[in-house]
Design goal:
- By secondary structure, the chain is of the alpha+beta class.
- It folds into two domains: about 210 residues, Immunoglobulin-like (Sandwich); about 325 residues, Glycosidases (TIM Barrel, Alpha-Beta Barrel), CATH 3.20.20.80.
- The chain contains ten helices and 42 strands.
- The strands form nine sheets. The protein has an eight-stranded antiparallel β-sheet with strand order 1-2-3-19-16-15-10-11, with helices on one face.
- Strand 21, helix 3 and strand 22 form a beta-alpha-beta unit.
Length: about 700
């Protein structure tokens, strides 16, 4: 529906099955449909009707109504029941010259005058769950996005005519939002969403659902800067296996492809720098080495930088117009700003793919993308290029990358994000869960940090507690810089190593649960790591809680995040079990919990069905052990347990096995329904059902009430 008001064109459209589009621009300027932020998938047709009452005109669907008042030149959003989600706000008057900005206001919520705003990344309030503004920028471990969800009942994503000049927003004292829009048009996507689950589904419909990651990426990932040579890598893996410390990947910094980093390379480049090679000290025979590591259950991931260092390559790229203009705000240093490849250029993409193809063909499992913040979309086009390369080499392969920042939609390529170059201190550990939870609410379901800190040396206690928290991060990955002690558990004393081993064993027991949650995310947009507010939206005590969180709906992690081994834990209004025991606690209740170095406070909600696997040394290890399904009674419950090959895209064509477990509490009956034809060697063949008791607390270490072994 198109209106012409005040010299501007106002378009009202249905963008997806749950979202409207409000487009404002000078007359005749079309919406920016080609934004890299948007998935562009064909959406199911959504019926709508045109409404007209006096000067008020709009479009109405089953999920809501978007209205414009031509007389006052204002607009408002309503939900499917007709409730007002935003008060009437003035439409902008866009008469500015090209390159300037204008304001677009969203009215305050009629139902909630002081709303909270979630899902705009992790700045400006590092570690906070809610935001009051977003500057829309990418930096070293900082992400600020042109989107939010208001607990007044709606979400918004704004796309400008230039993705690299994204809009910014700030909450108003009245409870509305003031957007500042670069350029001369705005595409404001508006989503009536009563809760965070609806918002994340609807946001994924707009920007893309994340694919299911390779299963190995949910294991433990050991990263460092400073892998010395071939023998060092092999000896490190041997020590992990000897000490029975599970690990699935080594992530390697500069040294995998160059003996000297390019930080000192000048703008004109270095004639001797190698951009696309193997460092023979580490990889004299790369294909055979990576194949051998894969047989041992280890994946290799190498860092990539977005720039060129070799003089001849730079001269050629500049001659073709493939180098980005210098951005004086680029956080990565003077010499680096002048050498960044423009991944939005199709010819540059093809050249990069040609030069990196040999790494993927040799068995590189993924890329670690660093320092790509020259423009807001660097990581977006870079990952588009990388994903296409993996598809060229193997159309069935799952692409995986780890990135220092992200823009809307990056998740749909198979990308994960980490929080950048952080310090090894307790304050940073305490802030980290809040950043990862904010990433979850911002459409990035797979996130992590440099566990133990990148800069400086953690104490054994700090590294251990950080690793214990990492058990419940979407990705568990340590990292350290060249001059810090590598975060290998055995380098921090026997007590720390034993506690870390216990934490890693727990992480691997949770793989069946985490991997099923990955399928849930792929299908619904619900993240693996969830703030308590997602499940308890009416509990004011958890509206901004970040020091404890949920995996899925029923597993509450409250790891120790401060020195000394003690903390307070708040359990919302429900019945909770201490994980693995009959100890039952009725919430709401605050507990003061002391924890030994090898203890992690974990609680499970009544009605939860929790699938656990055996302790493995890597996710691909063969096992005949049964799947253990822990049943925490007190309420009916269901869980969709999903299995597939863990590495290909066959799940998109039905190559899965879904087992929907159901618990009927009144009759104490467990039942299940199996769909799908996947029958691979790694599928569980037996089920060990473990039923806990609601009669507790019996004792903290009480055994289960009943246990059965079943074939399924």
């Amino acid at each position: 529906m198109v209106l012409h008001l005040g010299g501007n064109e106002i378009d009202l459209d249905v963008a997806t099955s749950h979202a409207f589009l409000l487009h404002v621009s000078p007359s005749g300027k079309a919406p920016a449909q080609q934004s890299i932020f948007l998935a562009g998938n064909a959406q199911p047709e959504t019926s709508f009707s045109v409404t007209h009452t006096g000067s008020i005109t709009g479009i109405k669907t089953g999920f809501g109504e978007l209205l414009v008042d031509a007389a006052s030149q204002t607009w408002s959003l309503h939900d499917g029941s007709g409730a007002t989600l935003t008060d009437w706000a003035p439409l902008p008057k866009i008469n500015a010259p090209p390159g300037s900005s204008f304001d677009l206001n969203v009215g305050s919520s009629s139902e909630k005058r002081h709303p909270r705003f979630y899902g705009s990344g992790n700045v400006p309030n590092l570690g906070a769950l809610t935001q009051t503004e977003a500057h829309s920028r990418a930096g070293n471990g900082s992400t600020s996005l042109p989107q939010y969800w208001s607990d007044g009942g709606y979400g918004a994503l704004l796309v400008t005519e230039n993705d690299n000049k994204p809009a910014t927003w700030k909450a108003t004292k009245e409870g509305g939002v003031a957007w500042t829009v670069a350029g001369a048009s705005a595409d404001l996507y508006l989503v009536p969403a009563a809760n965070l689950y609806e918002w994340l589904r609807d946001d994924a419909e707009l920007t893309g659902f994340a694919p299911v990651p390779p299963r190995w990426s949910l294991g433990y990932l050991q990263s460092r800067w400073g892998w010395k040579d071939k023998a060092y890598i092999e000896e490190t893996l041997a020590r992990f296996r000897k000490d029975q410390l599970p690990v699935d990947a080594f992530i390697i910094d500069f040294e995998w492809y160059t003996k000297t980093p390019d930080y000192e390379v000048k703008a004109q480049g270095d004639p001797n720098f190698i951009d696309f090679g193997w460092n023979p000290d580490l990889f004299p025979d790369p294909a055979n080495q990576l194949a051998t590591f894969a047989q041992q259950g280890l994946q290799i991931v190498g860092i990539r930088k977005p720039r060129i260092g070799n003089r001849d390559n730079l001269t050629m790229a500049r001659g073709n117009g493939w180098i980005l203009p210098v951005n004086p705000d680029d956080p990565n240093g003077e010499n680096i700003r002048t050498r960044n490849l423009d991944y939005s250029n199709p010819d540059a993409q093809a050249w990069w793919q040609k030069n990196n193809r040999k790494f993927v063909e040799a068995g590189m499992a993924g890329f670690w993308d660093d320092e790509g913040e020259t423009t807001f979309t660097d990581y977006s086009y870079w990952n588009l290029t990388e994903e296409a390369l993996f598809t060229q080499v193997d159309p069935k392969a799952r692409f995986w990358s780890l990135n220092r920042s992200f823009a809307p939609g990056l998740q749909r390529f198979g990308a994960a994000a980490w929080t950048g170059d952080i310090n090894a201190d307790w304050g940073t550990l305490a802030r980290t869960p809040g950043q990862l939870l904010s990433y979850s609410l911002s459409g990035m379901p797979y996130s992590t940090c440099d566990i133990g800190g990148f800069l400086g040396n953690p104490t054994p206690e700090l590294l251990t507690r950080w690793m214990e928290a990492g058990v419940f991060f979407p990705i568990q990955r340590t990292h350290s810089d060249l001059h810090s002690t590598p975060h290998f558990p055995w380098l921090f004393g026997q007590e720390a190593e034993d506690a870390i081993r216990k934490a890693l064993d727990l992480r691997y027991r949770f793989i069946p649960y985490d991997y099923s949650l990955a399928f849930e995310n792929n299908r619904t947009g619900a993240p693996l790591m969830r703030p308590l507010v997602m499940e308890f939206p009416r509990d004011e005590k958890v509206a901004e809680t970040t020091d404890e969180w949920l995996l899925g709906k029923g597993l509450l992690a409250a790891p120790v995040l401060t020195q000394g081994g003690e903390r307070d834990i708040y359990l919302p209004n429900d019945r909770w079990f201490r994980f693995g025991t009959n100890e039952v606690i009725q919430g709401p209740k605050t507990l003061h919990v002391p924890s030994k170095l090898d203890e992690i406070p974990v609680y499970v909600r009544a009605g939860t069905l929790l699938p656990l696997g055996p302790v493995l040394q890597h996710t691909g290890e063969a096992t005949t052990a049964p799947l253990e399904l822990q049943i925490y009674p007190g309420r009916n419950g269901t869980f969709d347990f999903v299995e597939d090959d863990g590495k290909t895209l066959n799940y998109r064509k039905g190559g899965v096995r879904d087992t929907i477990f159901s618990w009927t509490d009144q009759t104490k009956t467990l039942s299940w329904k199996i769909t799908g034809n996947y029958n691979g060697e790694n599928r569980f063949r037996a089920l060990k059902a473990v039923l806990f008791s609601t009669r507790g607390p019996i004792s903290k270490e009480a055994a289960m009430e009943k246990e059965d072994m079943i074939s399924f």
